[in-house]
Structure formats: structure tokens, C-alpha cells
Amino acid sequence: MSDTTKAKTRKKAAPAEAAPPRTAATYTPELAALFCAAIADGKSIRAACNIDGMPSKATVFRWLREHPEFEKLYEIATDERADTLVDEIVEIADNCRVDADSIRKAKLRIHARVEQAQRMKPRKYGNKMQLTGDGGGPVQHQVGALSDVELDAKIAAMTAAVNHDGG
Hints:
The chain is 64% helix and 0% strand. The protein has eight helices and no strands. It has helices spanning 3-13, 29-40, 45-49, 57-66, 68-94, 100-120, 122-125, 148-164.
């Protein structure tokens, strides 16, 4: 074998560079921001962690314990994720085919997003119960004697209001 052929053979036999690690374990503000952007975009922790170069779930939970600035970023991201899920509801409904199976699947996907949004942002998307009077003021209490007819009318009005509000 000639020297030239041996040199070519040696070049081919050179070890390949090791692939970069699929996950990151070292906290950096840049990586934290990228991770939180994925969460805000609607990804679950599991889905965000499955993106190449992102931290594992265990690492994310460790970061939440050890880095208060990450905890704040993550809280904002999950808050924004609720809004993203609500935006997806309209897209799902608008893009649903008009057949029974597609409609059932769309309803399930919509229901899952509504439930998640209600848990993540209950003040905005949760079921509301009015604990104030009209216009946000205090509840007005009337003290006085009501006739049976007036009392029955009040009970009927309250029952109708509760049933109308979904309660």
C-alpha cells in the first residue's frame, strides 16, 4: 500500500466528533428564557424538555428551587401559556372538519384546553361566582317582613338567576 493510500485510510479512521448533549443541566439566563418562551408558546414542561438542548424535567424543577429569577420567569410563562391555550380553542373550532368523529375530537381538545386555562389562570378563565352586590358594591340586605307571596317571588328569582348563570 502506498503512503498516500495509508494517509487517506488514516483520515477515514479518525473518530467522529461526539454529538452535543441532548439536554442542558447548567443554568444560564439565556437558556431559562428559551425554555420559558417554549412554555409561553403553549408547550407543556414535558414537551419543552424534549426539545434538543433544553433541560430535563428534574433540572427544571431544581432550577425552580434554586433560582428565584427563573421561578418568576416560569410563573409569567405559565400565565401566558393559559392565554395561548385559549387562542388555540378558536383555531381548533375553526379548523374542525364537519363529521362526527372530528367534532368529538375537537370538543375533547377544546375541553382539555379550557380546563388547563382555568387551572392556570383562574381569575381570568375560572368559573366566577359573584360575591358582591350590583356594580361591585356590597351585598344589600333587607331586613323586614315579607309576605309569603313576596318571599316565594324572591326565591324564584334567585333560583332562576343561579340556574341561568350555570350554577
